[in-house]
């Protein structure tokens, strides 16, 4: 009998990690998690789910109530932030406005007493690596949001961390720049060979970036997996609804999730699930229909995504009665 392959080496391991702020105020509830070395991990969930608290505990900016944090098999639970081997990129970038980009990057080495020539040389080298060397003498107020983020990344990297922690680093950027910068973050993670742990509330952002997604809710982990696995095989009704693009339905086989692009529409008859069109939203390459499902099959609003060409060929209007159907093989059973 073949032995199971060994688990990937974990850069970060959380063991029964818990954070309580008082009786009945549990922010993180005894979570266990292994984050593979040299991977991009996204902690994802709604506000208040515990993802940022988890990140701050890994960083050493928040104490733990119980449990352990291991970095490359070394217990760092009680170590100060500067001794952990991690570095943090904050949502606001937190650059010193009166210092140049070069001096911002070199600042932590200055605090450690590194000689001026050495720290500035190392800072300049990192700015070159993130394509900011030519703007080394500019102050943050003279840089765009994307340029400030590159400086913040260089500043985090100058301490030579093994794990880079990112606390919603793209949320302050405009939508166009956000897409551009997430591609750059993924490129930097691969080029540097570091482990990135990235907190976000954006499903799209996590799907684009992560090797591993960790979906959290009320301080607990609902599901861990690749973006493809989490999106196509949600473990629970919460994950299916939070990830979006799914309908949660009560069928004779139990509660199932069906992707909204896997549902077929037809004029009302007696062969499908009867529903009424309520909303029609044009989204460019597709049209999103909101429907009210008749009977007790629906556990919430139902949506159907139709390719634009299909909708043009057979448009639907609010108030129209339709039938829904889907391939049973494309219905994913949810945990009770």
Task: Give a verbal description of the structure.
- With 336 residues, the chain is an alpha+beta fold.
- Helix content is 27%, strand content 33%.
- The protein folds into 2 domains: 10-232, Rossmann fold; 247-333, OB fold (Dihydrolipoamide Acetyltransferase, E2P) (Beta Barrel).
- The protein has 9 helices and 18 strands.
- The strands form 4 sheets. A 6-stranded mixed beta sheet has the order 6-7-8-3-9-10, sandwiched between helices. A 5-stranded antiparallel beta sheet has the order 13-17-14-15-16.
- It is elongated and about 80 Å long.
- The assigned CATH architecture of the largest domain is 3-Layer(aba) Sandwich
Order of helices and strands: EEEHEEEHHHEHEHEEHHEEEEEEHEE
Structural category is alpha+beta
Largest β-sheet summary: 6 strands, mixed
CATH superfamily of the largest domain: P-loop containing nucleotide triphosphate hydrolases
**Can you list the strand order of the major beta sheet?**
6-7-8-3-9-10
Number of helices: 9
Q: From the structure provided, what is the oligomeric state, counting identical versus distinct chains?
A: single chain
Q: What's the Cα radius of gyration?
A: 24 Å
The CATH topology name of the largest domain reads Rossmann fold
In total, the number of domains comes to 2
General shape: elongated
Report strand %: 25-35%
Which class of the largest domain in CATH terms? Alpha Beta
């Amino acid at each position: 009998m073949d032995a199971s392959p060994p688990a990937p080496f974990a850069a970060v391991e959380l063991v029964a990690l818990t954070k309580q702020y008082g009786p009945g105020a549990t922010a993180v509830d005894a979570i266990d998690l292994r984050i593979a070395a040299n991977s991009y991990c996204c902690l994802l969930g709604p506000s208040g789910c515990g993802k940022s608290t988890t990140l701050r505990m890994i960083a050493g900016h928040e104490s733990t109530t119980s449990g352990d944090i291991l970095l490359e098999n070394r217990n760092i639970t009680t170590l100060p932030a500067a001794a952990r081997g991690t570095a943090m990129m904050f949502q606001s970038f937190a650059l010193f406005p009166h210092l140049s980009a070069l001096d911002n990057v070199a600042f932590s080495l200055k605090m450690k007493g590194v000689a001026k020539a050495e720290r500035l040389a190392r800072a300049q080298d990192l700015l070159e690596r993130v394509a900011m060397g030519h703007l080394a003498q500019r102050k943050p107020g003279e840089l765009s949001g994307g340029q400030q983020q590159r400086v913040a990344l260089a500043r985090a990297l100058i301490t030579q961390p093994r794990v880079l922690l990112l606390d919603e680093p793209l949320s302050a950027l405009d939508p166009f720049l956000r897409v551009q910068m997430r591609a750059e973050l993924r490129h930097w993670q691969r080029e540097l060979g570091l482990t990135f742990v990235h907190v976000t509330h954006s499903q799209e952002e996590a799907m684009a970036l992560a090797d591993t997604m960790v979906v959290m809710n009320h301080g607990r982990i609902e599901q861990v997996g690749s973006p493809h696995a989490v999106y196509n095989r949600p473990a629970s009704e919460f994950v299916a609804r939070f990830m979006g693009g799914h309908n949660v339905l009560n069928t004779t086989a139990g509660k199932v999730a069906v992707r909204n692009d896997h549902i077929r529409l037809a004029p009302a008859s007696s062969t499908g699930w009867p529903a009424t069109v309520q909303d029609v939203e044009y989204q460019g390459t597709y049209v999103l229909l909101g429907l009210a499902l008749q009977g007790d099959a629906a556990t919430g609003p139902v949506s159907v995504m139709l390719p634009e060409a299909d909708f043009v060929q057979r448009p639907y209007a609010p108030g129209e009665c339709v039938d829904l159907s889907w391939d049973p093989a494309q219905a994913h059973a949810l945990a009770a």
